[in-house]
Amino acid sequence: MMESLYDVQQLLKRFGVIIYLGKRIYDIELMSQEVKQLFDNHLIDQPTYLKAWAILKREHRVERMREDL
């Protein structure tokens, strides 16, 4: 069960997708696009997509707050 950004990374890794751009917020944005592509191509189901999307949205919000400090 996915609960963290690491879990989303592991989901993407199962499909051969490894993301590292050097800045965490950019990584999260690209992961969001990749997860959407997996869902659009019927490679992951809707509950998995929604859980991954919620995690990524939360982490993106945290990073934005961290950058604003």
From the structure above, extract its key features.
single chain; 69 residues; mainly alpha; Helix Hairpins; 72% helix; 0% strand
CATH architecture: Orthogonal Bundle
CATH superfamily: YqgQ-like
Indicate the mean pLDDT: 97
Number of domains: 1
What distance separates the N and C termini?
Answer: 32 Å
Structural class: mainly alpha
Order of helices and strands: HHH
Gyration radius, to the nearest Å? 12 Å
Low-confidence stretches at least 5 residues in length (pLDDT < 50)? none
The 3D shape can be described as globular
Estimate the strand proportion: under 5%
Q: What is the CATH topology?
A: Helix Hairpins
Number of strand elements: 0
The largest pleated sheet is described as: none
Percent of residues in helices: over 70%
What oligomeric state is this? single chain
Q: What is the CATH class name?
A: Mainly Alpha
Number of helices: 3
Protein name: DUF910 family protein
